[in-house]
Design a protein that fits this description.
- The chain has 259 residues and is an alpha/beta fold.
- The protein has two domains: 2-86, no CATH class; 98-253, 2-Layer Sandwich (Zincin-like).
- The protein is 36% helix and 24% strand.
- It has six helices and 13 strands.
- Strand 12 (183-187) and strand 13 (193-195) form a beta hairpin.
- Helix 4 runs antiparallel to helix 5.
- The longest helix has 28 residues, at 136-163.
Amino acid sequence: MSVRIAVPRPRKYSPDQCFHYGDERICFEISTRRSQKSKVLIKVHPDCRVQVAAPENSSDEEVLGAVKKRGRWIWQQLRDFRAQQEHLTERQYISGESHYYLGKQYMLKILVEPQEKPRVKMLRGKLEITVREKNPERIRVLLNEWYKDRAKEVFARRLEEMLVQALWVSERPPLRVQTMQTQWGSCSPLGRITLNPHLVKAPRESIDYVILHELCHLAEHNHSEQFYRLMKQVMPHWEKVKTHLDSMAAALLNGSHRA
C-alpha cells in the first residue's frame, strides 16, 4: 500500500456522481461507511477531488441530493484550491527562485564557474549551485541529485526515530529512495519501504507521517479500521498532517518532473 500524491488527475464518473452548480459540472467520488448516523460527509481535497462518504443504506438519489445542498460550499472550495494552483509558475532554475527543503523555502544562487566541478550546497540560508555554464535543465538535474542524497540521509534518520513508536516492528525494514510520479511512499508485500526523494522538501512531520503510514502497513496490509486505529495511536493528528502535505504537493513537485 502507498501514500499517494495529491495532484489533479483525470477520472471517470457515472451520471449519479455529478451535478451542475451554475455553469460548472462538479463530479465526486463516493464511498460507503458503517455508522449509526445518517449524515453524508463531504470533503474537498487540495487536488480538487470531491470525496463523499455516505451511510451504506443510502440511495443514489439521497446522496446526490445531500451533495447538491452543499453545492455552493463545494464550488467555493474548488475555486479557492484552483486559485492556489494558478499562482504556481513553472520553475526556471535561476538565481532568486525559491525551492523547498524540509518545509522551508531557500533561494537559489547560481554560480557559473567554467573550471569548477558542478555541485550544490546549502550556504548561509541559500541553495548555492555551481555550474560550468547556465543551463536550466542541468541545474534541475543537479538539484534533484542533491535532493536525493539529502533524502537518503534524512529518511534513514527519521525511520530510526519512528521505529521507536512502531512497537509491532521487530527489525528495521529495508529502505529505498526512488522517484515516483504518484506516490510519496509505498510498502511492498515483502516489507520494503520506498520513499519519494521529493518528500524531503516537505516538513519533518510530513516525512514522519508517510514513514509511519508505511510502517503501519507492515502490521495491516490494507486501509482497514485496524490500520487507522494503529495510525491514530502513533500519530493522533495524522489527518491534519496529511491535509497539509496534500496542500503542498503541487508546490513541492513543481518543475521536478520533465520529459
